[in-house]
Design goal:
There is one protein chain. The chain has 499 residues and is of the alpha+beta class. The chain has 3 domains: 143 residues, Periplasmic binding protein-like II (D-Maltodextrin-Binding Protein, domain 2); 115 residues, Dipeptide-binding Protein, domain 1 (Alpha-Beta Complex); 213 residues, Dipeptide-binding Protein, Domain 3 (Dipeptide-binding Protein, domain 3), CATH 3.10.105. The protein is built from 16 helices and 19 strands. The strands form 4 sheets. Strands 1, 8, 9, 10, 11, 12, 13, 14, 15, 16 and 17 form an 11-stranded mixed beta sheet that branches. A 4-stranded antiparallel beta sheet has the order 4-5-7-6, covered by helices on one side. It is globular.
């Protein structure tokens, strides 16, 4: 800690001596990595989806309990397979002045459903048979089979019809959300709040220490998450910096390539799970800013599995399993572990590497920039990797990540896992007429994927935001979304100094 504080101090001196006064206009939000795309048809990474929520209106959203609620439209269920959505009369138009009509909604959903477009969201909406405009303000969704969760699935950001039909990813997509996209480049993304013209710039600063120092210097106003606990703690001690923490639902996990001859073996996955001491990692790396997890869905989710037994740390049993496969201290099991270049994620990988070395597993850590890393994971070029699922609301995420038909690009079964039992249970859940039947099927899935160790579930990470003195009114959400930027205010320099 002393060394880290000294390093921060030296960097701070350099930063203070080498910079002019920060620009007073607008709000500056520091990001650890740039979103891969802001096109709502293709956005799947956390930064992309969180920024997209600011740019695009959605038919529905979710309340704090994860239930579907109206957003751009309210709905009526006409019968088991037909839903009629009616657009809100007070809805905003697109940021280019064009009104938003049912034709735009239809075009946006038809684009995602079109296999030629190649949207990764197509699998989630696969039960939709047809989407039709009924006049200018009504949209009829017809399903292949009953789906009680359809309203909760309709959270796609709506594009103008012409953009929705375009091939390839849009560079400057147009939305009807509370912010308008002005431009984006390698350094950041410029938005403007539509109600008052407030400029908002997302700036990419990969190194968390530099991000923290820029916040302290006034070159950034907000940084959220992707902060090592010691940096967040240090910022909380600094004058003029406000730090908030809140429990989150971001599910962190260690993933396996089930098509690999080594990580495809259950005994090896079991040894890895037994060799990882999750509580030690939470205590020492996260400073208890995380909660152990057993499944993607939290246990209090209506379709969660509250009775899953926690994974245990048993290095003796791990070594026994590996010995049975011919691996020991002199002949360790060698595996590659891919992660991003984020310093904290590298420290986490190094800690897991040390724990697995104690059970005769030699881990080679391979770190990459976010785009390269994420591309390799989607392509199946890995043995081990660590990632997190962010903002999970609907239990159908389980189909998206575990069904054998959900391999990229049509889904997120990145480990190429296949189980007839899980496929069957997911199909049963998809045909269920009631949420009780659906929940039972999803609990079967969660129990089986735990037995198969598709992932090693790690923890639900807490959220943290650090704010400069100009910012007021920002509040963390459980899902980590940036929605509070809609209402956040900026103090004048006079107000900040006085406060």
């Amino acid at each position: 800690m002393a060394i880290w504080r000294t390093t921060v101090g030296l960097l701070l001196v350099l930063l203070l001596s080498g910079c002019d006064s920060p620009p007073p206009e607008g709000l500056r939000f520091g990001l650890a990595s740039a979103p891969l795309t802001l096109d709502p048809r293709f956005a799947t990474d956390a930064a992309g989806e969180r920024i997209a929520r600011l740019l695009f209106a959605r038919l529905t959203d979710h309340d704090e309990q994860g239930r579907a609620v109206p957003a751009l439209a309210r709905w009526q269920q006409l019968d088991a397979t037909r839903y009629l959505f009616i657009l809100d009369p007070a809805r905003a138009g697109f940021s280019n002045g064009q009104p938003l009509t049912s034709a735009d909604v239809v075009a946006s959903y038809r684009a995602v459903l079109d296999p030629a477009i190649g949207s990764p969201h197509r699998e989630t909406l696969r039960g939709i048979r047809a989407v039709t405009a009924v006049g200018a303000v009504q949209i009829l969704f017809e399903l292949e089979r009953p789906d009680p969760l359809l309203p909760g699935r309709l959270t796609l950001g709506i594009l103008p019809a012409a953009q929705a039909a375009a091939a390839g990813r849009l560079t400057l997509p147009i939305g009807s959300g509370p912010f308008a996209l002005l431009d984006q480049d390698s350094d950041g993304i410029r938005l403007q709040r539509r109600r008052d013209g407030l400029p908002l710039r997302f700036l990419v600063v990969g190194d968390p220490t530099v991000r923290a120092l820029k916040l302290l210097r006034g070159e950034l106003d907000l940084i959220q998450n992707d902060l090592p606990p010691e940096i967040a703690g240090w910022l909380a001690e600094q004058a003029g910096i406000g730090v908030q923490r809140a429990a989150g639902d971001t599910f962190a996990y260690l993933g396996f390539n089930h098509a690999d001859p080594l990580t495809g073996r259950l005994a090896i996955r079991q040894a890895i799970a037994l060799g990882i001491d999750r509580q030690a990692l939470i205590s020492h790396l996260f400073r208890d800013s995380a909660t152990p997890a057993e499944s993607v869905l939290p246990p209090d989710h209506w379709a969660g599995h509250p009775d899953l037994q926690p994974l245990t740390h048993d290095p003796v049993r791990a070594r026994q399993l590996l010995a049975g496969l011919g691996y020991d201290t002199e002949h360790p099991l060698h595996l590659g572990y891919k992660t991003s270049a984020d310093p904290f994620r590298l420290r986490l990988a190094a800690a897991i590497q040390a724990q697995l070395a104690a059970v005769n597993i030699a881990v080679d850590i391979q770190s990459y920039d976010w785009g390269t890393f994420y591309g390799d994971i989607k392509a199946g070029r890995f043995q081990l990797y660590s990632l997190a699922w962010v903002g999970v609301k609907e239990p159908d995420i389980l189909r998206h990540i575990y069904h054998s038909e959900s391999r990229p690009p049509g889904g997120a079964n990145r480990g190429r896992y296949a189980s007839p039992l899980v496929d069957l249970a997911l199909d049963v859940a998809g045909r269920a007429a009631t949420t009780d039947d659906m929940a039972a099927a999803y609990r079967t899935v969660q129990a089986q994927v735990r037995d198969d160790l598709v992932y090693v579930p790690l923890w639900y990470e807490h959220h943290v935001v650090a704010m400069g003195p100009r910012v007021t009114g920002y509040r963390l959400r459980r899902d980590g979304a940036y929605d509070a930027l809609v209402d956040v205010s900026i103090r004048t320099q006079h107000q900040a100094d006085r406060d």
